[in-house]
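hiii, so i know i said id send this last week but things got crazy w the move. better late than never?? heres the sequnce for the chain we talked about at the cafe, plus the structure i predicted for it. fair warning i was half asleep when i ran it
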Amino acid sequence: MSQRLALAQADPILDAARATVLDFGVRRATVIEVARRAGLSRMTVYRRYPDGAALIRALMAREFGALVATVDEEVAGLATGLERAVTATVRTVELLREHPLLRRLLELEPEVLLPYVTDRVGRFQVLAREALAATIAEGQVDGSIRGGDPARLAAAVETAGRGFVYAAGAAPADERAAATAELKALVGGYLRRA
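okay and structure toks below
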């Protein structure tokens, strides 16, 4: 784990924000409650994060950035770029399906996620796409992944994976397992060099 990631993990303000969001959801998570849980004054929190939205963005960047770092470590030893890209995509989807913050958002406030489906790409999606694009570029060099702009290929894979994440809550466990197998086949078929 990088030193920067380790420092971000140890942030008591973000730890308190995480607990608050898990208890109340994003919309009802206040800076006052986060400060109380962190044992700090509101002004201390505001010095680090100018408003509640910035605090929540930092929390999500920490949580999902750590997820991407975990997946990168897990797939680092795989032989080809294609294996790393497919496994990283599937593993990221699996971890997102299980992530307590994302599950809580889907349970309490799914509308908070809607803009990331219809209007914009969030910081986590950018991070995931960048990591995947680097792996795709490696796979193009080793000959396991077809040609094309790695950023565009990564964007297509991330967009497809996002659908698998959001749809998982509505499916029973056996269907989720089948969907995971289909995602693996989809990504492998899309990226594989012909």
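btw The radius of gyration is 18 Å. thought thatd interest u
miss u guys!!
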